[in-house]
What we know:
By secondary structure, this protein is α/β, with parallel strands linked by helices. 28% of the residues lie in helices and 17% in strands.
Amino acid sequence: MSGPHLTLFALALLGGLLAGYLELSHGHVSEDENYYMQELLSREHYHQVPGAEEQAQTHRDHSPSQTTAKKGAKGKAPSSRQTDKATPEAKTVKNRNKNTEKSKKSPNMISEDHAQYKQIQEECPPMGLETLKIDDFQLHASTMRRYGLGAHRGRLNIQAALYEDDLYDGGWCAGRLDPLQWFEVDARRLTKFTGVITQGRNSLWSSDWVTSYKILVSNDSHTWVTLKNGSEELLMKLVNEMCPNITRIYNIGKSQNGLKLYAFEISDNPGEHELGEPEFRYTTGSHGNEVLGRELLLLLMQFICQEYLSGNPRIRHLVDETRIHLLPSVNPDGYEKAFEVGSELSGWSLGRWTQDGIDIHHNFPDLNSILWEAEARKWIPRKMFNHQVPIPDWYQSKNATVAVETRALVAWMEKISFVLGGNLQGGELVVTFPYDKTRSQGVIREQTPTPDDHVFRWLAFSYASTHRLMTDASRRVCHSEDFAKEDSTINGASWHTAAGSMNDFSYLHTNCFELSMFVGCDKFPHESELPEEWENNRESLLVFMEQVHRGIKGIVRDVQGRGIANAIISVDGISHDIRTASDGDYWRLLNPGEYRVTARAEGYSPSSKKCEVGYDMGATRCDFTVGRTNLSRIKEIMEKFGKQPIRLPVRPFPIRTPQQRRLGRGGPTSKGDGVTGG
Length: 678
């Protein structure tokens, strides 16, 4: 008895030959359109591979003549030439498909490429396990009970032989002592798997059936990725293979349940920080049930890859001049919970918290209180700086209530000198900016601006104003508050106070300016709504990334031309400084205007200059050269000698008698002695 039809998305590049898109199903076409695949095929040069179109079109139905043609292939991968000659209907079908494409065009269609993909999807037959198109040598298994029950029998509706030792004894059965059973199909070409059907084995001697299973895919038969609908690991790996020269996959840690936190880097030199190139990040999924941000980042990485390959000058400039990091799932454990019940049944909070019940977005140390107390005691800058506030010791202890995901984020934020970041959330249409905690104790809502309030307001507006719905005054409010009246931007503390937010921590502990984008009213929209949500946010995602190049940038060097790390960059009138990276380069986000900027470093004399920020996109270059102070040179010499007083060689002073001292004469000296009495 066959099991349920499981719809999933997978691309197996096991043969390296793009020969078509097949469906593994029981003669039925899946009604759900996979938007990831549509995006990957939205460019003409990705699907116009010789033979791909013809092969898909010759398999448009399951007529007897076509079944015979498939049998004639005897399990071999049909090339484009073979399928062209397989049946006289081929050319007719091809012409009919072209006419269908033209008739399908309408204002609601995305593009002609979208229609072509949809057409290919509807015309693909089952993969060929039951019809023997898949040859025996393409099937592998962990073990087999005996050869007659080997992997070559892992097909539907296999009739058993009369004798137990027959070569074709029955369906595949694993060995009796096999605790980890697996069955493998080598597709040998680019293949789209859309379903799996299982069937029990019933014979005179034994009965076996599948009670549960999971699906993994691989491109090299060595590295396997567990698959589910829209698997982010698979999507990231696919895009990485499409654009290997500008992308890199790495992980920043693991969740409480051991799931890896994968990050995706996009840069013209992935894996390295380039001098003068700013670092940007998007994170999402701190609340695991807010899934829309995750899907948007997966689509964003595909879009950037495609547009870069197609020569889009805007995307090429962005990639060449910026190091971009995308973290699609900060809380994968929570996402798994929400995904298990689905879009409609996940509710408002299922999966929001980590496995330990922690809200990651508000799990960072409360540095606001530390800074504000230091300001009240007038400790700044004598005892404490107005930036890079240190993390308290209690927070770093093992007994602190800190999620492992949060610790991984903190380490990642400290390791890379991010300049600008955005965390995508769901359930509203608004952009919030620091501070997220009210300064007055006991007050739930209060305007609490940072020293960079004007910059934050511009950054928030850059996203909201380019979103298709956020600033639309005629749109329906998501819940009770109409943020569109305020351009859909708001100071976080004036909305609701929250101590220890990711935005406040990023601003006070690192150089990074962080904002929260609530990208949709529905936290977990249905897959069919992704195209519209992508269009709503696509331009905003790009525009906000481009803001990392607003303000000033430069390098702080010593007189020998060496970059100085950890130098302080101060702007007159703004009581929040930043620091240089390990190579001495820095980026300071500023709105257009003229500023007096000062560079300071321990042991060096400060250097100041005027830097002007224009309205055109592109940071103004503002370099500094600083010289060593006299005190620092003295300290350097003292350290060289073990911090001891410097003892210069001197000649012995002659001893004089009291009479000689009265007469002002020196003691008895040898000829040529330069020491005289006095």
